[in-house]
Amino acid sequence: MNNRRQFLQQAAAAAGVVFTGCSLLDRRLAAQTPAAPKRRQVTVGGRRIRTIDIHAHVVIPEATALMGVRTAPNNASVLAPERFDRMDEWGTDMQALSINPTWYSVERDVATQVIKVQNEKLAELCARYPDRFVAFASVALQFPDLAAEQLEEGVKKYNLRGAAIGGHVNGDELSAPRFDPFWRKAEELGVVVFMHPQGIPEIDKRLAGNGGLANVIGNPLETTIFLSHLIFDGTLDRFPALKICAAHAGGYLPSYIGRSDYGCVRFPESCKVAKKKASEYVRQLYFDSMVFTAEGLRHLVAECGASQIMIGTDYPFAWSTTTVDHVLNTPGLGDADKRAILGDNAAKLLKIPA
Q1: In whole angstroms, how far apart are CA 33 and each of 61, 78, 86, 87?
Q2: Is the Cβ–Cβ distance between 138 and 160 less than 8 Å?
Q3: Residue 109, burial from CB neighbour count under 10 angstroms (0-12, 13-18, 19+)
Q4: Residue 126: its pLDDT value, please?
Q5: What is the mean pLDDT of the chain?
Q6: pTM: predicted TM-score of the whole model, two decimal places
Q7: Of the CATH numbers 3.90.1150.180, 3.90.76.10, 3.20.20.140, 3.30.450.40, which one belongs to the domain with range 44-68+87-349?
Q8: How confident is the model at residue 110, as a pLDDT?
């Protein structure tokens, strides 16, 4: 065990990667790490399933340093050995790694350096552990032309499987025409764009106080706004083959999509751009499974289809430690649905060979 842990720590350090979560806040590691669990084998209908987590995070300290942010490995949340231990315990065979964008406000030259370092390090990590990791490219979306170039390089040069983006760029909606070069490139390459919210500064005051509302409410709300703009501003019509996966089960949109449909009955003048009902677009988007209850997952499947859902943990944050069991234990899901959600959908979307 000690030799395995030492090897993994050295490998992660060599790749210049810190396995952390949705923020750069320091979190201390536990003084002692429990013994590694035996790798869980997940089966459905007697068939072994390769489970793939679409929603997991890392940070590249060398890249954050270029922006004047220090990410100390000894204060980061979870290093490589602990990550593999948790994956083995939970039955997660692979993770699709993403880096939450913190670089949308930096200048072009700095953003170029940050993205280059991040994509190179992600590629090295995936090459070192090809049976455990794939990754999404980082892109400097504040410069859409540059982001398109970075996405193409990430996919063609580094074998990254798409892009990870935030829900807005400095307050600008990503449905704005100026972002079309990026969307056009993503559609051309046929790769998935994974959207993770970054917060809504305009309502920070309303979300202050108890309950962690900036995260608990703010994150799914931002996702809802992001997707709604792509629908009603026509982005999904301009680029109908786009593959977009929204974190946190698409926020509130799938669960309240009927109101979006009826809004166009009540206010038809506001819906002239979109060519279809909102509920039809929802069935061409992708979502992680982070809805926490069996009824929530059942409803998500009913609104979107099992073909559009993949497991997500938000690792290393302890939001979904029972993700696999959540799918296995949801009543009404057939074996084909469970296999799709647990890994088949992600394998197809991320072009992971059998």
Answers
A1: 23, 11, 11, 14
A2: no
A3: exposed
A4: 95
A5: 89
A6: 0.89
A7: 3.20.20.140
A8: 97
Q: Do residues 189 and 155 lie in contact, with contact meaning Cβ atoms separated by under 8 Å?
A: yes
291, 300 Cβ separation under 8 angstroms = yes
Residue 328: half-sphere exposure toward Cβ, Cα within 13 Å: 14
What band does 31 get if pLDDT is binned at 50, 70 and 90?
A: very low
CA distance 347 to 350: 5
Specify whether the backbone of 130 is left (phi greater than 0), alpha (psi in -120 to 50) or beta.
alpha
Question: Distance (Å, rounded) from C-alpha 293 to C-alpha 165?
Answer: 27
| Other C-beta atoms lying within 10 Å of the C-beta of residue 347 | 18
Encoded tokens for 9:
């720590």
* Distance, CA of 109 to CA of 321 (rounded, Å): 39
Q: Do residues 349 and 309 touch, judged by C-beta distance below 8 A?
A: no
Q: Which residue type sits at 352?
A: I
- Has residue 9 got a pLDDT over 90? no
